[in-house]
Amino acid sequence: MPGPSLEDVYYLFDPKTTFGTEFFRKYYVEIEHSESNIDELKTRLELSLKTREPIKILFTGHRGSGKTTALHRLISKLGGEFFIVHYSAFDIMDINDISYTDVLLSMLSKMLDKIDGEGLTLNEALSKRIMTWGSSIEKIEVDEETESGGIAAKISIPFLTLMGKIKTETSSRTEIRSRIEPKVSELINIINDVIAEIEKTTGKQVLIVIDNLEKTDPSKAIEIFYNHGTQLVQPLGKIIYTFPIALKNSEKFSQIVINFDKVCMHPNIKILDKAQNPYSNGVKVLEEVISRRAPLDLIEKDALEYIINMSGGVVRELIRIIRDSSIRAITKGKKKIDKEIAITVVNDMKNLYRGQISEDDYRILGEIYKSKELKRDEGLVRLLHNLSVLEYRNDTDWCDVNPIVKSLLSEKGLIRS
Q1: What is the DSSP code string of 267-302?
Q2: Which end of the chain is more exposed for a tag (fewer CB within 10 A), N or C?
Q3: Beta-carbon contacts of residue 213 (< 8 Å; ≥ 6 apart)
């Protein structure tokens, strides 16, 4: 039987890989700082079981740093004391246009969906109240003879349909939000009564985990977390919200965190320390991320070093560079990824960055390259959001220019190569 090939690399290095038991068994790599974060979150959640605290957590990190993987890891470690409602904002909302009312309605919709999936039912009075509120927002028709399985199923389907309209229909989205806005207090009351009913019926405490919410535009995130943070913490379940790392450096951040119990930072993997010395532990982790999927000898040694360095320690960027390099190598009839191939892939990525960086951004990037310091700066907020600047952690947080963007600074003569 032939060994792994570049074709296998293409299939195994997919940035959109779905997660499951088999994924963790084969490909999960323990990262010291990530595992400690996960264990601390697990402890915090377990301690809150006794006090019944409805704790609210902001879980942040760069896009592609492995937050989704970390959340799946956390959920896999939690015991049966939790009724877990875990979903992606991508699946149920328009990530480019999210309102706080969408987030609250998504909680109700996904809880009802989970109730349906678990074969549970709500008491009749609560079910009727949910239907009455829903009908005041959008006409809901339910076939009383349906055999889809219980009153909860009759409710979850139209609410998920309503979320579908919010996600895909711009005109419906605006109209539905205008109807929800004056009735949002009742929506929160219904969410809380559903949580209470779940906990009474199952003996488990509700934990809601909303992933990919951090990918919304910073201006939308401010509308959600700053303007309406008080509404987000009113549901009485335990909730983990993913949160844009860029907003950690917004002037509004200190006001945002007042409403939440904990901000958990999921950092990138360091391959250089703040003084720009090689950090071998980080390099070894990234090599293991690769070798779990395919033999390292499918990548020439100098190409491997180059790819790891240019990834900046962002796992998804590492995987994307390798996958795109495998396509280019296969096209050229090569059996391995060499440095020349990797450079052409990185150059394509560099051109994408070039198109989103303004002259004022270059000034900020030059300052960050020299200082490595995080500061309250709305310009830095934008650069963190688009990955031009990457945040790392020692005893204190620090940042650096994305290695791919550094080459743009070199081209403009702003730094020495």
Answers
A1: PPPPSB-TT--B-HHHHHHHHHHHHTTS-GGGB-HH
A2: N
A3: 89, 98, 103, 221, 224, 241, 242, 243
Q: Which residues pair with 392 in a beta bridge?
A: 398
Per-residue pLDDT of 290-324, as tens digits, reads 999 999 999 999 999 999 999 999 999 999 999 99
Can you tell me which residue has the tokens 């879980």?
Answer: 59
The edge-to-edge listing of strands for the beta sheet with 238-244 is 82-88, 205-211, 238-244, 56-61, 262-265
Q: How far, in Å, CA of 366 to CA of 408, rounded? A: 11
- 117 and 233 belong to one structural domain: yes
Distance CA 183, CA 137 (A): 9
Residue 183 sits in the same domain as residue 37: yes
* Mean pLDDT (whole number) for 356-373: 94
Residue-wise pLDDT tens digits, 121-134: 899 999 999 988 98
In the predicted structure, residue 215 carries a pLDDT above the cut 80: yes
Same domain, 348 and 400: no
Report residue 404 CA to chain centroid gap. Answer: 22
Residue found under tokens 């071998």: 280
- Residue where a domain terminates, one of 213, 239, 265: 265
List the structure tokens of 366. 């030059």
Torsion on CA atoms 104, 107, 110, 114, rounded to nearest 10: -150
In this structure, are strands 205-211 and 82-88 parallel, antiparallel, or unpaired?
Answer: parallel
- For residues 109 and 255, membership in a common domain is answered with yes
Q: What is the dihedral of CA 273, 353, 366, 308, to 10 degrees?
A: 20
Q: Where does a domain end: 354, 370, 386?
A: 354
